[in-house]
Each structure stands twice: as C-alpha cells, then as structure tokens.
Specification:
Shape: elongated
Helix content: 40-55%
Oligomer: single chain
Strand content: 15-25%
Order of helices and strands: HEEHHHHEHHEHEEH
Number of strands: 6
Structural class: alpha+beta
Length: 255
C-alpha cells in the first residue's frame, strides 16, 4: 500500500493504518482524501512527485488541526455552517450526476458532424460587411432613407438616431458576418443588395425598422471542422443537459 511504502515523505509507522497518511490528535487522515487532492492537482498539469505528496500531506494536517478546533468551539453546529454544508453537498451531487450523465450519454461524432454541416450550409458561401440604422417607426425609417439619398451621411445619422446600442456609435457598422447570422427579413435584404447599395424601403423585424447598407462582400471562410468541434460538442452537451433537467422537472412534484 502507498501509505505503508511512502507515507508522504515520512517514515512508515505502526501507529497508522494502511489507509491513512497521518494522524492528528488520534484522528486519521484517510489516504483517499490525499489521493483526491493529488488527482485534482494532476488535472491541472502537476506531476505526482514525492514533493507534491509531502506538500499535500502538510496541507491536510494543517486543515485537520484547524477543523478540529472549529468543532471544539461548536462551529459545526451553527445554522450557517449546516446550511452551507447542505448547499455544498447538493452542488457536489449535482456535479456528480451531470458528469455521470455526460459519461453515459456521449455526443456522437455523427451528431457533431451533422451540426457542423448544418451550420456551414446556413452560413452560405458569402459574408457581408453591413451597416444599419434601427428605429421604431416605419415613417422615421422612410424619412432617413430619403435624407441619405439627398446626401445625408449614413454614419452620422446612425450615430444620432439608431436604436441599436451595439452599432450606433460605430456608424451602424455590424462588421463582417454571414447573412445567416441575422433574422430572416434582415438576411434576405442583405442577399438582395449589391455592394455599396442601401435598401430603398425599410426592413421590418421583431426589433423594429431597419435601413440597411452593404458596404462590402467576400467569399465565406468557414472554420475547419476540427477547429470548431470542441465548441459544437460543448453546445450539444449543454442542450442534452437542459433537456435532461427539463424532463426531471416535469416528473418532479414541486409545491
């Protein structure tokens, strides 16, 4: 056993059981606790060395000494401590269940590739550098179009009147994006516009009325499958977890 052979830098002693790394005031610190900490450190890239084991042993001894003092003072009996312990236990159970679920319900390579192909097809072959001005009323959007056609500055009008906080200070600039990133009416308008042209009539979406201009366009450079695979897997795992929790919620009796 590891405890008998290497007791974290100390000599083996008959006072300790085979499953302990130290004893504090007669209470043993189990080997399993040390193994858990060492495994967690290994997950962060630290090598399992005698030096690491010695440090872990010392930390566990220190923690045990302080914990015993806390119990001696009765701090483990306070309402706050009990509530925190219950919450921590619940969170650990949730994490354990989630990890077990993901282990037993892995996302298949076929599903990941299918999602990649769907996203690639939705993105299309082109991406566009777009500006827009968003207002609440159609009449105002029509007036803005007329003003721009008479020589008004699209950028300045966007900064003054657009209701889109994310783009108004940039002259309405939405930067490069495929049409598929936008809601259908907006995307359809982009695809129909020629480079440098603006919509002749306002485009309505659930956000309001848009005046849209396509400043430039170029062939779409969609990322390679291996580059985005981890992100797709993560998204699909999240969707699986959301569905699993929703199913459990539907079966639960909540009062």
């Amino acid at each position: 056993m590891l405890a008998a052979a290497l007791t974290f830098g100390g000599a083996a002693t008959n006072a300790l059981s085979a499953g302990a790394v130290a004893k504090v005031n007669g209470k043993e610190i189990p080997q399993a606790r040390a193994d858990f900490v060492i495994k967690a450190n290994a997950g962060q890239g630290q090598a399992d060395t005698p030096e690491l084991r010695s440090r872990v042993r010392e930390v566990l001894i220190r923690n045990e000494i302080v914990a015993q003092e806390a119990v001696r003072k009765g701090l483990d009996k306070t309402a706050e401590f009990i509530a925190q312990t219950d919450l921590n236990r619940q969170e650990m159970l949730v994490n354990a269940y989630v990890q077990d679920y993901l282990k037993n319900n892995p996302v298949s390579d076929e599903a990941v590739k299918a999602e990649y192909d769907r996203a690639k097809a939705q993105a299309g072959d082109m991406e566009y550098k777009v500006r827009h001005i968003l207002v609440k009323e159609e009449a105002e959007a029509k007036a803005i179009i007329a003003q721009i056609k008479k020589g008004g500055s699209f950028d300045k009008i966007a900064a003054q009147k657009s209701q889109d906080p994310g783009s108004k200070d940039k002259g309405g600039d939405l930067d490069w994006a495929p049409a598929g990133r936008y809601v259908p009416p907006f995307a359809d308008a982009i695809k129909k516009l020629k480079k440098g042209h603006m919509t002749d009539v306002p485009v309505q979406t659930q956000f309001g009325w848009h005046v849209i201009r396509v400043d430039d366009e170029r062939a779409m450079k969609f990322p390679a499958f291996e580059e985005v695979k981890p992100q797709i897997v993560q998204n699909q795992q999240r969707q699986q977890l959301d569905k699993m929790i929703a199913d459990l919620r539907a079966k639960a009796k909540v009062e």
